[in-house]
Amino acid sequence: MTQDERWELHFEQVMQFMRSQRRCPSKHRLEEHQMLNWIKFNKKQLAKGKMPPSRLQPFQQLLQTADRYQRLNQYAYLHTFNE
């Protein structure tokens, strides 16, 4: 299995999880750590500009899906700073 095939396999696994569970992988569930770590690693690659062009569009689609399933009651700390 090539690296691209492995990446696509993980991509499909995470997308299928988010669509079926209607949420992002949780850091509090051990069985979901692999998916969460895969997302975090790819976010870092994207930020560094090291992500191959063939993966950019699918990963951005994944991030949009993750934004859609963001928890509704998440507390934002940004509004507490009144500098």
Write a concise synopsis of the structure shown.
The protein is mostly helical and 83 residues long. Helices cover 61% and strands 0% of the residues.
SSE order, one letter for each helix or strand: HHH
What radius of gyration results from the CA coordinates?
15 Å
What is the percent of helical residues? Answer: 55-70%
Q: Which strand-content bin applies to the residues?
A: under 5%
The major beta sheet can be summarized as: none
Q: Uncertain spans, ≥5 residues at pLDDT below 50?
A: 76-83
Q: Based on CA inertia axes, which overall geometry fits? A: globular
**Strand segment tally:** 0
Q: How far is it from the N-terminal to the C-terminal residue, by CA?
A: 52 Å
Q: What's the number of helices?
A: 3
Structural class of the helices, strands and pairings?
Answer: mainly alpha
Arithmetic mean of pLDDT: 87
